[in-house]
Specification:
Rossmann fold; 9 strands; 2 domains; alpha/beta; 13 helices
Length: 294
């Protein structure tokens, strides 16, 4: 691993800094060859928006983390580290406003750059209607060659991954926390299977447990990896709607399953359709839209 990549992964492991701070660091030191020579006072000038507490965390981690040892451990666990500057970095994701600086991946990383990718998300407690619709729509999509991306959450996400596997397709799971901390725990067997035969990725360093704020951040990766996003069921305020709006900001297609107006699970998808999302009555509504675009 070259010096620059190792240093970028080091910064990515430091607490106290986020996406914008890393951008500022790269603008200040594009080759990252002066990281360890800067004093705390230097960093206060470079990163003026950070609090003293954040700066201290960053500075201490920068000078105490043994990144070579962590990289060695990740490699032993077959975790690949793909930075924004690597050839393997997914092309679609590179084009979004705030692409992850580092992706930690376990499995077949080539899946991220395949020609046809559809994201599928929805509620954690789907109705029978949502399950039946998913079972009807997804298998023909997979047969047409689409890779399914989802968030490995309970409910629709899990079922989308399982349908991909059961129908001899391929699937990508994007998780909020690190690869050593699968959430929810009941999805650990599914995740391990996907790490062997498909792909699981995260922008969170492998040892870090998931926190609530990570999931909206994760959603931009789900949509960013994809040509479009299918929302099966979504309540009026939900993570699925966050994914849908991020998809729109990224210029992706948004598809929504219509539902009963009395069902809370359909409130979000019905509103998306009102706002211009494509209503999905069959798998062909998705496939035909992409064929028209191509």
């Amino acid at each position: 691993m070259d010096y620059f990549k190792e240093r970028l992964i080091l910064i990515h492991h430091c607490r106290g800094v986020g996406w914008k701070s890393i951008l500022k660091i790269l603008q200040e030191d594009p080759l990252l060859d002066n990281l360890l020579n800067k004093t705390l006072e230097d960093w206060k000038i470079i990163l003026p928006r950070l609090t003293n507490s954040q700066l201290s965390l960053f500075y201490n981690d920068l000078h105490s983390i043994d990144i070579s040892q962590k990289i060695k451990l990740y490699k032993e666990n077959k975790i690949e580290m793909i930075t924004f500057f690597d050839e393997e970095y997914p092309t679609r994701l590179k084009r979004i406003f705030d692409p992850p600086w580092v992706i930690y991946a376990k499995g077949n990383i080539r899946l991220m750059n395949q020609k046809k990718i559809l994201a599928v998300v929805g509620v954690r407690l789907p109705s029978q209607y949502g399950i039946d619709a998913l079972n009807q729509i997804i298998p023909p999509i997979i047969k047409d060659g689409y890779i399914i991306v989802s968030g490995l959450a309970a409910g629709i996400d899990t079922r989308a991954h399982l349908l991909s596997i059961q129908n001899d397709g391929k699937t990508i799971g994007v998780i909020g926390g690190g690869l050593f901390h699968i959430y929810p725990k009941e999805n650990t067997p599914l995740s391990l299977k996907m790490m062997k035969e498909h792909l699981v990725i995260s922008e969170t360093v492998p040892f870090r447990k998931s926190e609530p704020w990570m999931f909206p951040q994760r959603n931009r990766i789900i949509s960013g990896l994809s040509d479009g996003v299918l929302i099966i069921e979504a309540k009026a305020r939900s993570g699925s709607l966050i994914t849908a709006y991020q998809a729109l900001e990224q210029g992706r297609e948004v598809f929504a399953l219509p539902g009963n107006i009395t069902s809370p699970n359909s409130r979000g998808t019905n509103e998306l359709i009102q706002e211009g999302a494509k209503m999905v009555l069959s798998y062909n509504d998705i496939i035909s839209e992409f064929k028209n675009d191509r």
